[in-house]
Amino acid sequence: RVLNANKGKQNFWxxxxxxxxxxxxxxxxxxxxDRVLIGGPTTDEGVVATNILVDIYxxxxxxxxxxxxxxxxxxxxxxVANAMLAQRVSSxxxxxxxxxxxxxxxxxxxRAIGADSRIGSKFLNASIGFGGSCFQKDxx
Length: 140
Description:
Blueprint: H1 2-5, H2 26-31, E1 36-40, H3 44-57, E2 66-70, H4 71-102, H5 106-114, H6 133-139
Parallel strand pairs: 1-2
Helix pairs in contact: 4-6
């Protein structure tokens, strides 16, 4: 309604540009991101709008790290990324309980499975839960 009420000579496009900033490293993540995700309409005009935003990011982010997709894939990617990270934390916390029952050391188990290149070591520290504003709102 806002766009329709303000129609004039301007063109408006709705783009999705979710942030993937981690608590404590947000400035570094913005300056040197793993990836930038831009979702937009798949129309010719939408592709033009998406490419304008790509060109802005390309001033400091290598183009191979700028991913483009449609609006809904972009939005869902953000939610799925947070759900998968939360799942890793939840999994290692469950494994921690198993370690307590069996006498295994969760830190050693985490180090061993984290050395597997298919798994990696990030988000494998057992704790009382997980934090970050996005985790809680995105997975509940």
